[in-house]
Design a protein that fits this description.
Blueprint lengths: L5 E4 L33 H13 L3 E6 L3 E2 L4 H5 L23 E2 L5 H15 L4 E4 L7 H11 L7 E4 L14 H4 L5 E3 L4 H8 L5 H14 L6 E3 L9 H4 L3 H13 L3 E2 L30 H12 L1
Parallel strand pairs: 1-2, 2-5, 5-6, 6-7, 7-8, 8-9
Antiparallel strand pairs: 3-4
Length: 303
């Protein structure tokens, strides 16, 4: 009803217990890449959901979290050699604040085979993948994964979540490089300018100048995923509480080059950011019904 073409589901897998954040744990601290979180249902339930999405003319993509697992993951028990280690030989991570996960070590080529086999299993059901912290996983891995998944799901959709960690000294791919393997990348390269304007720290001209600069930076035909908000950020209506101005911003994001992400609840203009680690509700803060407006923006974008 919003005019969406693709439903992106955040991680559907079981969540680890060791180092768990909050009462539910982070969905990005995955315990088993090949399992379904029992709180969501069974594998058969998931297939039924995807079939229902397809019946409505849409596609379904799922989150792939290949930079790390929970410390008590299936792989941590069955393949401890797949993990990054510190000087004392203990599993470790590059981001200290992510204490509920340990990083995988892609210098082990057996890990590549396991991860690609897992992707192919899911590609038999879904239409694509949103790849978490994709820039921190070797680009050659993603290129190989894409080639092999194509044999199972021709036209598979690949969206890269890009988290710039070069300032920490960690090796990671740039957005430009990621287009070798991905169809779309997040708009996070210019997010500080977008949020800087919303906070009142930067001018609108500064933001639009850097937005236009993307045209000079990326390959011809590049696709950025635009969004006013997502599960990691404050709600757009937190910054822009006037509904007329909020509609202007949403329309502007729609009409920028690229795809448009509608994070759950955007159509109700909620102001409160929902936490990831405890039971919460994206739809408990309804202030407006923008559904028809968003649908019309989509229709205009296609004209």
């Amino acid at each position: 009803g919003l005019g969406a073409d693709i439903i992106w589901l955040m991680p559907i897998h079981p969540i680890g217990s060791e180092g768990r954040k909050g009462t539910l744990g982070s969905p990005y601290a995955i315990q088993d890449y090949r399992g379904i979180n029992p709180e969501y249902g069974t594998r058969e339930d998931f297939i039924h959901l995807v079939d229902a999405i397809h019946a409505r003319g849409m596609k379904c993509i799922i989150d792939v979290v290949y930079n790390h697992t929970s410390p008590d993951s299936v792989l941590a028990h069955t393949h401890p050699e797949y993990f990054l280690r510190d000087a004392e030989g203990r599993p470790t991570r590059k981001v200290a604040d992510w204490w509920d996960v340990v990083d995988l070590d892609y210098s082990n080529r057996d890990l590549w085979n396991y991860q690609i086999d897992t992707l192919k299993q899911w590609a038999a059901i879904v239409d694509g993948f949103r790849c978490d912290v994709a820039s921190s996983v070797p680009l050659d891995f993603w290129c190989k994964a894409r080639r092999q998944v194509e044999t199972v799901r021709p036209g598979c959709i690949w969206l890269a979540y890009v988290l710039g960690m070069r300032r920490t000294g960690a090796a990671c791919a740039t957005d430009t490089e990621l287009y070798r393997a991905f169809d779309m990348t997040y708009d996070y390269d210019i997010w500080p300018f977008y949020e800087g304007f919303l906070k009142g720290d930067l001018s609108l001209r500064t933001y639009t100048d850097i937005l236009n600069y993307q045209e000079l930076t990326y390959p011809s035909g590049f696709i950025k995923m635009r969004c006013g908000e997502n599960h990691d950020t404050p709600r757009l209506a937190h910054w822009i509480q006037d509904e007329r101005r909020l509609r202007h911003w949403l329309a502007f994001l729609y009409f920028c080059r690229g795809s448009m992400l509608l994070y759950g609840g955007t159509e109700f203009a909620p102001r409160r950011q929902v936490g990831l680690f405890d039971a919460d509700d994206n739809f408990g803060d309804k202030r407006s019904d923008l559904s028809d407006f968003l649908r019309r923006c989509k229709a205009m974008k296609l004209e």
